[in-house]
Amino acid sequence: MNASEKIKIFLVDDDNMFVDSLKHTLSGKRTEVKSFSTGEECIENLFELPHIVVLDYALNNSLNGVQVLNQIKQVSPETQVIMLSGIDNTDIMKDTMKYGAYDFIEKGESAIFKVKKEINAMCDEIESDNEEDKEDNKMLWINAGIILLLVIAFILTHIK
After folding, report:
1. Residue 52 has pLDDT above 70, yes or no
2. Residue 97 and residue 50: Cα distance in Å, rounded?
3. Which of 6, 93, 121, 148 is 20 to 30 A from 25 via CA?
4. What value does the mean pLDDT take over residues 43-49?
């Protein structure tokens, strides 16, 4: 991810009002947010390799959240998935975590606040990792340059 590239976030939920509120809350300078009302639509767009997916467990007329989570992890294992559920059920939470969800948030009054807080932390982590990668690449090029100069110096000193 380069400096001008935004962090891609997919929202997958069939509750349009919730998705619109969440999309408005999460959209910003560093994020690109897309929403889908079915798991199938999300899966069809995984070629975009989102960094984060916020996924409802119970999707009407669609695959359930765990089925979509499995597909996401097969196509893009690095994508972090936050599962949402309006059902307070520890078995659902355990299931989603077992299949690779990053976090599980119960829908309720504070769900949007919790999702925003989690997404901000994840974006900070993604940007930090990208900065570390840039620094590692810079050091790799410096080391390659030094090795190249040493090879050239060696060749020049051993030519008769």
Report:
1. yes
2. 19
3. 93
4. 94
- The number of C-alpha atoms within 13 Å of 92 and in the hemisphere containing its C-beta is 15
Residue pair 13/53 in contact (Cβ under 8 Å)? The answer is no
The percent of residues above 90 in pLDDT, for the chain, comes to: 43
Strand partners, 5: none
- On whether the CB atoms of residues 6 and 33 are closer than 8 A, the answer is no
The answer, as to whether pTM is greater than 0.90, is no
Burial class (CB in 10 A: 0-12, 13-18, 19+), 9: buried
DSSP character for 63?
-
- Calculate mean pLDDT across residues 27-52: 93
- The region that residue 49 occupies, defined by phi over 0 for left and psi between -120 and 50 for alpha, beta otherwise, is left
Residues present in the chain in total: 160
The DSSP secondary-structure symbol of 5 reads P
Q: Could you tell me which residues come within 8 angstroms of residue 51 by beta carbon, excluding any fewer than 6 positions away?
A: 1, 7, 8, 9, 78, 79, 80, 122, 126
| 71, amino acid identity | Q
